């Protein structure tokens, strides 16, 4: 190996070490901040032994219809008033859930009576046994409890007398769980030894996720579910209470997980063959419905109150109120952590409700005392006093570790200093890289000494010390400014504006539009720089590129998914109205895009004579990948619309196509690219002598940019057609921006990383996402798998979320090598990679630090958990993805530097 090749190899190793060091520091900062910010509610282990009055019922049958929202009750498809007029035998109520509206957290609230924390939403796919006192455990201790349905229950409770769990997360399966409940639940009810029988149906929820609440399939599912409800109502005996409830609602697209009114407003229907209730409105369902429409404005206000007047025609209770109510119905102790108020309409006038009220007050006072909350004077069963107690408890639970949050912010700031110091002096990377292992060792030992052994929050301290130790490598870098041109100063100004946007809840809500205007402004300024040159060619090419990028930005901004807060001023175009299905016209647009893809992309390579070899193969194969994607999503659309019923092989064909595309990008595309020679060729004269080398004017960049096409192949089956269109537009915009910054003289500045970071976020929003939990496209998990927890399903959801950031990390790492001929000293190419990596991590880290500071400053803000917390989480995901992608990009880009060096050394 020649001396220059050895230098290149060593420089690549040093840059990868530094990239890993930055990744560790960023992860340490994020973990430390998360430790202090995303806190969970403390769990109490006390078991209640309070005695409730004699129970009015001997048995309870509970049927949970997942995502049964209040608006479904008394519709033509679900007319529960036909079972019994509302009065002493039956009543219905709005059943307000507490966010997050994920099934697992709702089941915890419905059984313990407690409230979840925001971060608990993340455990929806990995529940553990409930340690708190709950009415299910109380019922199991005093009798027999049988269960059938959603297997989430068996992850929370292991003491059922008999259970028949069914997998719950395959949203494409609309009937298996429901059919199992319909078959087994009547048998469990017929067994008189079962004190409590629980059934949990998922069909309504799955139809909502797949089609939306207004689809004809929803009407069919509601109608079949109601027929089963009528069957159970006829089967129960006189001493049994029958409860039908939704655990949460659904938004207009059929999704849930957030805190919009549609997601929170579930439905509750309770029935008994004996007159055991005291609801006084016994009018027909039609008059009740008219009354509900006239008083809809009052229902929102009453949702905040648990106690209702018995003369109210629209009952409205919190889901936590169900816990003391069912405990009293069965004569069990009220769970220790229960925060609800007994539903007064659920008891007849003969029942000793005053005694129950005393037991409830004593239990709540005991819990409040243990939790360290002073109970205010007055009737705590009143809505006002009860709300005060809940507010006090929430203030006790949400105690932020501000010190940990500040430590995380400081460490993130130091990581930015690291990037600034590295940027102008990548040639010192070897000294810096030599200190990285010592930093790892020092930090790890310090962390183990000070923080280990106390759970993951203390392991966050271990990671924090490890990150601090990595800062030792700063000692190997000189103090020099990151600013090298006026374009860098301009980029810093734009980055500052971008970051300050994150401190405004209104700007965060409208972030896609803010980024669109900022990016368009930069493009126009670059255009002016091109027009200001004396070269007519530069002006003409710059004008064409700028117009094309502005057009792409306009297209991306038109593909939207609206947040709840912007619904009145925004129109979702990614999905059909009130549905989770994409419009079919996107398939035709995608077909048109695939036809023009090659003519649009080829000139970026052909102008420098690089459209040869592996470049032509990869770009041309991208068209084939797009056609495969059209086939895949056409089959998916046909199946969703019921056109493939009975074709057993349709799902297998779709999964085969999806896995083929996912594998092609990595196993085939990147492997062929890695093994291929650089994109230049020898031009010979008539005598056979070498006349010139064609393709050396962009010998590095044309080769190093090709992996983004391979990544695009893998993203096609995990993004719906409007998302694929957005990703293809982003790829074109990347190439155009690389040329535009080169022509405008901004290539060697901080501006390209700022612009590419904007483009990544703009594309993220244009692929059907928002900085909210409900916008996560969980249904993508089944594009490449039949199960929810396979490798393919996890990979699909992950790529769907991080795809734009993964692609944009490559141009931000190689932009300084774009349109450059071979260096006489190859080590300079590696140094430019180091500078680009430093710029990239600095820009992404700055935006993430801004989101951390916003979450810190506004942690008590009304919109903290709805706006600032999800935005911080998005920033954290984007930063880690960018770091990992930068390391991968440096490794891949160094491949071409090494190949070019080897070629010229061989021919010297």
Automatic annotation (TrEMBL):
Domain of life of the organism encoding this protein: Eukaryota
Entry's transmembrane regions: 396-420, 432-452, 489-508, 514-531, 581-601, 613-635, 655-674, 695-716, 722-738, 750-769, 789-810, 831-857, 872-897
Molecular function terms, GO-annotated: mannose-ethanolamine phosphotransferase activity
GO CC annotation: endoplasmic reticulum membrane
UniProt key word Transferase: yes
Compartments it resides in: Endoplasmic reticulum membrane
Membrane topology according to the record: Multi-pass membrane protein
Keywords: Endoplasmic reticulum, Glycoprotein, GPI-anchor biosynthesis, Membrane, Transferase, Transmembrane, Transmembrane helix
GO BP annotation list: GPI anchor biosynthetic process
Compositionally biased tracts (Low complexity): 280-312
Pathway: Glycolipid biosynthesis; glycosylphosphatidylinositol-anchor biosynthesis
Region (Disordered): 278-312
Family: Belongs to the PIGG/PIGN/PIGO family. PIGO subfamily.
Record-given protein name: Mannose-ethanolamine phosphotransferase
Native species: Starmerella bacillaris (Yeast)
């Amino acid at each position: 190996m020649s001396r220059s090749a050895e230098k290149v190899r060593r420089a690549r190793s040093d840059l990868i070490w530094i990239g890993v060091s930055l990744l560790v520091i960023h992860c340490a900062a994020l973990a430390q901040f998360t430790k202090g910010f995303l806190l969970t509610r403390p769990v109490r282990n006390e078991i209640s032994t309070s005695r409730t009055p004699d129970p009015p019922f001997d048995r309870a049958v509970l049927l949970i219809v997942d995502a049964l929202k209040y608006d479904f009750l008394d519709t033509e498809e679900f007319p529960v008033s036909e079972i019994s007029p509302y009065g002493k035998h039956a009543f219905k109520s709005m059943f307000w859930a507490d966010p997050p509206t994920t099934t697992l957290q709702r089941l915890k609230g419905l059984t313990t009576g407690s409230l979840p924390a925001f971060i608990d939403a993340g455990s929806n796919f990995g529940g553990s046994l409930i340690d708190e006192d709950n009415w299910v455990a109380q019922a199991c201790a005093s009798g027999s409890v049988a269960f059938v349905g959603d297997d989430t229950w068996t992850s929370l409770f292991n003491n059922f007398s008999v259970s028949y769990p069914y997998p719950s997360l395959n949203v494409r399966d609309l009937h298996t769980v429901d059919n199992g409940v319909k078959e087994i639940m009547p048998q469990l009810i017929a067994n008189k030894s079962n004190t409590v029988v629980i059934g949990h149906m998922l069909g309504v929820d799955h139809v909502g996720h797949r089609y939306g609440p207004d689809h004809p399939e929803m009407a069919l599912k509601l109608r079949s579910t109601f027929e089963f409800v009528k069957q159970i109502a006829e089967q129960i005996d006189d001493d049994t209470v029958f409860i039908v409830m939704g655990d949460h609602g659904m938004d207009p697209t059929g999704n849930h997980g957030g805190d919009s009114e549609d997601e929170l407003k579930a439905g509750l229907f309770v029935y008994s063959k004996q007159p055991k209730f005291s609801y006084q409105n016994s009018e027909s369902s039609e008059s009740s419905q008219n009354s509900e429409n006239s008083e809809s404005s009052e229902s929102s206000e009453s949702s905040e109150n648990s106690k209702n007047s018995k003369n109210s025609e629209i009952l409205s209770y919190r889901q936590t109120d169900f816990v003391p109510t069912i405990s009293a119905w069965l004569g069990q102790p009220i769970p220790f952590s229960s925060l609800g108020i007994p539903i007064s309409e659920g008891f007849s006038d003969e029942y000793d409700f005053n005694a129950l009220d005393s037991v409830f007050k004593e239990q709540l006072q005991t819990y409040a005392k243990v939790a360290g909350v002073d109970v205010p004077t007055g009737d705590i069963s009143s809505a006002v006093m009860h709300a005060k107690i809940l507010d006090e408890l929430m203030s006790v639970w949400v105690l932020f570790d501000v010190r940990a949050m500040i430590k995380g912010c400081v460490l993130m700031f130091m990581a930015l200093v690291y990037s600034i110091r590295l940027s102008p002096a990548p040639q010192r990377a070897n000294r810096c890289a030599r200190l990285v292992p010592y930093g790892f060792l020092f930090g790890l030992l310090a962390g183990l000494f000070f923080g280990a052994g106390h759970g993951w929050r203390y392991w966050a301290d271990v990671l924090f010390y490890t990150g601090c130790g990595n800062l030792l490598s700063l000692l190997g870098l000189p103090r020099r400014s990151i600013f090298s041109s006026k374009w860098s100063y301009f980029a810093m100004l734009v980055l500052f504006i971008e970051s300050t946007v994150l401190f405004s809840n209104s700007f965060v809500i409208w972030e896609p539009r803010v980024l669109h205007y900022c990016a368009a402004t930069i493009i126009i300024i670059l255009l002016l720089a091109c027009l200001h040159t004396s070269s007519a060619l530069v002006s003409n090419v710059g004008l064409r590129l700028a117009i094309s990028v502005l057009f792409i930005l306009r297209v991306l901004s038109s593909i939207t998914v609206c947040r709840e807060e912007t619904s009145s001023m925004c129109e979702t175009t990614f999905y059909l109205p009130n549905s989770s299905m994409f419009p079919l016209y996107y398939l035709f647009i995608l077909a048109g895009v695939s036809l023009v893809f090659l003519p649009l992309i080829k000139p970026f390579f052909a102008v420098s004579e690089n459209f040869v070899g592996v470049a032509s193969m990869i770009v041309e194969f991208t068209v084939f990948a797009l056609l495969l994607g059209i086939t895949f999503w056409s089959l998916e659309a046909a199946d969703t619309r019921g056109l493939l019923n009975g074709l057993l092989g349709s799902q297998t064909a779709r999964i085969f196509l999806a896995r083929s595309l996912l594998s092609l990008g990595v196993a085939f595309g990147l492997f062929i690219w890695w093994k291929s020679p650089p994109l230049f060729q020898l031009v010979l004269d008539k005598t056979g002598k070498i006349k010139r080398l064609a393709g050396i004017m962009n010998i590095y960049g044309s080769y190093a940019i090709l992996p983004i096409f391979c990544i695009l192949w893998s993203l096609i089956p995990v993004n719906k057609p409007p998302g694929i269109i957005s990703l293809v537009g982003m790829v074109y915009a990347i190439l155009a921006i690389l040329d535009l910054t080169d022509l405008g003289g901004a290539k060697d500045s901080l501006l390209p990383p700022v612009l590419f970071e904007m483009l990544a976020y703009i594309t993220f929003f244009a692929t059907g996402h928002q900085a909210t939990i409900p916008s996560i496209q969980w249904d993508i998990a089944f594009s490449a798998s039949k199960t929810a927890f396979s490798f393919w399903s996890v990979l699909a959801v992950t790529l769907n979320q991080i795809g734009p950031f993964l692609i944009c990390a490559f141009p931000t790492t190689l932009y300084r090598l774009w349109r450059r001929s071979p260096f006489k000293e190859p080590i300079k190419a590696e140094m430019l990679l180091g500078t680009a990596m430093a710029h990239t991590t600095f820009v992404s880290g700055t935006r993430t630090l801004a989101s951390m500071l916003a979450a810190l400053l506004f942690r008590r803000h009304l919109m903290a958990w709805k706006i600032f917390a999800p935005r911080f989480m998005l920033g954290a995901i984007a930063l880690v993805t960018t770091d990992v992608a930068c390391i991968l990009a440096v490794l891949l880009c160094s491949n071409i530097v090494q190949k070019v060096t080897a070629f010229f050394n061989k021919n010297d």
